[in-house]
Design brief:
With about 300 residues, the protein is an alpha/beta fold. The chain is built from nine helices and 17 strands. The protein has one domain: Rossmann fold (3-Layer(aba) Sandwich), CATH 3.40.50. Strands 9-8-7-10-11-17-14 form a seven-stranded mixed beta sheet.
Length: about 300
Amino acid sequence: MNLENLRKERQKWMTWKNIAPLREAIDKLEEVNAKVELGDVVKITAQVDEKKVYETAKLLMPWRKGPFEVGETYIDSEWRSNVKYNLLRKHFNLKDKRVADIGCNNGYYLFRMQEDNPKLLVGFDPSPLYKTQFDFINHFVKSEIVYELLGVEHLPIYDEKFDTIFCLGVLYHRSDPVAMLKSLFRGLDKKGEVILDTFYIEGDSEMCLCPESSYSKIPNIYFVPTIKALKNWCLRAGFSEFEVLESSVTESNEQRKTEWIEGQSLEDFLDPNDSSKTVEGYPAPARVYVRMIKDK
């Protein structure tokens, strides 16, 4: 299926019976002139129907990424995504660049990236719910961000080649990580860069953890590599440079349960008697942030 037909097919997802009422709620929101602040909280100040905004935002739960504030409604997302954004901020400059965010969720990072005045911002995520959350926020922001209901596997056939691709928290969900890295490589223009984060385990050898059935109660985690193993994957995918930017352990100040999500969060994923381990007995989630360069 070519790209245009794929877009048309996926646009039908927005009419699913669990999504259509959410789209209708957004369509009923009034048009307003809003002031937008792109700080730790993506803050929208406007004269809005506060009750309608709050009720619409609640319909769109769970909110995984954020936070956002629309009028008096503060959307306290599960992830305080500003923690990751601020950690990476000093490592990139997107001015006049073509930028993609793979697995963009509701677009929190994309909204923040507008401060650099990139040439193009494109989000990729095959989730009609997250696309609908994005459209709710963008109803007020009125950005020119492009949101595609596509995945990383569609980068090689996409209309644009990118100068910078962000891929944050996706790699460990793929059963063939090298194939995914090759898709990222093929999505770049010459001299392009990928900024990636993924789970990792400590170790000096070129090995990875292969969870039996779940990792931190997440069933679709396939491989958690050492940094050396991750570097080898990236080199095999064609990248010429591999640079470790940062590493961090996920803590409750970044991921936690709030009234804006459903179900469990980090506190439920860790051993209650030893927070250095997951409930399965594996090392607790730690992330490494790397830059890979395509030199040709």
